[in-house]
């Protein structure tokens, strides 16, 4: 099986960053200067945390669920110890398909002498709990009481309009299940930018990866990686874009605060896998696109 069917765990690949700089009067931190030998034609986005904030707070659902599952093994570890263990591996795997976190949960159950459920069953349990947390957000989008812009990383629409004006083709590739991504893309009115190019996790997780989406884009359009631009707040998409020779923008979004400042944990993590630049949100979208297009 191709390695592109499997998403690797986080591993820091860049240790010597050197001096970074900010584009004048912006929040755009340049880590390395992108190549401009060829124009950007295709732009890949992660979804949750990169565009959508509908699922903000998901660890507060996933980790306590895992603590409950681990307690059922009869372990003598305290709830606080189990919380720290679960939180650590959940965040290390953040950016991969959700099923990978559930595979790890099953392994932790086995390690404590328990008999785990199938990872897919844990994923379904998590999704049920998550829906209880976020159903009001989704309903408010559906009935129009919440403006979609309030549930997006700030200035998302302005960025997407700027990309559209430059003729860029846009794609979504998410570790969240595809049916949810497609539904929430419509609720947020993002479908007008992405059309049918919305891809997400499958129950058979080996049939999807972000790398596979990128490879397909390049192959079908007969272009190399220099025509590719990627935006993401998870390590998988940043790493994949760089592996294919594209330009990677790390979106170190503060999902809860939306305060215009970068989340330092995300910033450091994404620089560690080769991000070319870091932004906290899309407040400086005009300067960012002018820079990327060499205007």
By CATH, the topology of the largest domain is Rossmann fold
Q: Indicate the CATH class of the largest domain.
A: Alpha Beta
Please describe the biggest sheet, giving its number of strands, its sense, and whether it closes into a barrel: 8 strands, mixed
Task: Give me the count of strands.
Answer: 8
CATH architecture of the largest domain: 3-Layer(aba) Sandwich
Question: What layout of secondary structure does this protein have?
Answer:
Elements: E1 21-22, E2 29-30, E3 42-45, H1 59-71, H2 79-92, H3 98-111, H4 119-143, H5 156-165, E4 169-177, H6 178-187, H7 191-194, E5 198-201, H8 210-221, E6 228-232, H9 235-243, E7 247-251, H10 264-271, E8 277-279, H11 285-292
Parallel strand pairs: 3-4, 3-6, 4-5, 6-7, 7-8
Antiparallel strand pairs: 1-2, 2-8
Helix pairs in contact: 1-2, 3-4
Write a concise synopsis of the structure shown.
The chain contains 11 helices and 8 strands. With 295 residues, the chain is of the alpha/beta class.
Explain how this protein is built.
The protein has helices spanning 59-71, 79-92, 98-111, 119-143, 156-165, 178-187, 191-194, 210-221, 235-243, 264-271, 285-292, and strands at 21-22, 29-30, 42-45, 169-177, 198-201, 228-232, 247-251, 277-279. With 295 residues, it is α/β, with parallel strands linked by helices. It folds into two domains: 3-53 and 152-292, Rossmann fold (3-Layer(aba) Sandwich), CATH 3.40.50.1000; 59-143, no CATH class. The chain has an eight-stranded mixed beta sheet. Helix 1 packs across helix 2 (79-92) and helix 3 (98-111) packs antiparallel against helix 4 (119-143). The longest helix is centred in the middle third of the chain and has 25 residues, at 119-143. It is globular, with a radius of gyration of 19 Å.
């Amino acid at each position: 099986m191709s390695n592109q069917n499997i998403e690797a765990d986080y591993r820091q690949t860049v240790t010597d960053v050197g001096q970074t700089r900010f584009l004048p009067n912006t929040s755009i931190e340049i880590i390395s200067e992108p190549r401009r030998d060829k124009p950007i034609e295709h732009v890949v986005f992660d979804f949750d945390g990169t565009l959508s904030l509908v699922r903000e707070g998901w660890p507060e659902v996933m980790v306590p669920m895992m603590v409950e599952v681990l307690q059922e093994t009869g372990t003598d570890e305290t709830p606080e110890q189990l919380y720290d263990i679960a939180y650590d591996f959940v965040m290390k795997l953040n950016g991969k398909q959700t099923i990978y976190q559930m595979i790890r949960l099953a392994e932790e159950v086995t390690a404590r002498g328990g008999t785990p459920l199938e990872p897919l069953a844990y994923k379904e349990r998590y999704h049920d709990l998550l829906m209880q947390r976020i159903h009001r957000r989704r309903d408010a989008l559906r009935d129009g009481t919440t403006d979609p812009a309030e549930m997006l990383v700030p200035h998302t629409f302005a960025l997407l309009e700027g990309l559209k004006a430059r003729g860029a083709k846009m794609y979504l590739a998410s570790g969240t299940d595809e049916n949810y991504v497609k539904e929430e893309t419509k609720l947020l009115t993002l479908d007008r930018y992405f059309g049918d190019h919305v891809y997400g996790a499958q129950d058979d997780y080996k049939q999807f990866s972000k790398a596979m989406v990128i490879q397909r884009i390049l192959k079908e359009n007969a272009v190399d990686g220099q025509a590719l631009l990627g935006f993401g707040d998870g390590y998988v998409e940043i790493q994949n874009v760089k592996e294919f020779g594209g330009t990677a923008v790390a979106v170190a979004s503060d999902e809860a605060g939306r305060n215009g400042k970068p989340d330092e944990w995300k910033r450091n993590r994404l620089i560690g896998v080769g991000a070319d630049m870091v932004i906290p949100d899309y407040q400086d979208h005009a300067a960012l696109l002018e820079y990327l297009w060499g205007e």
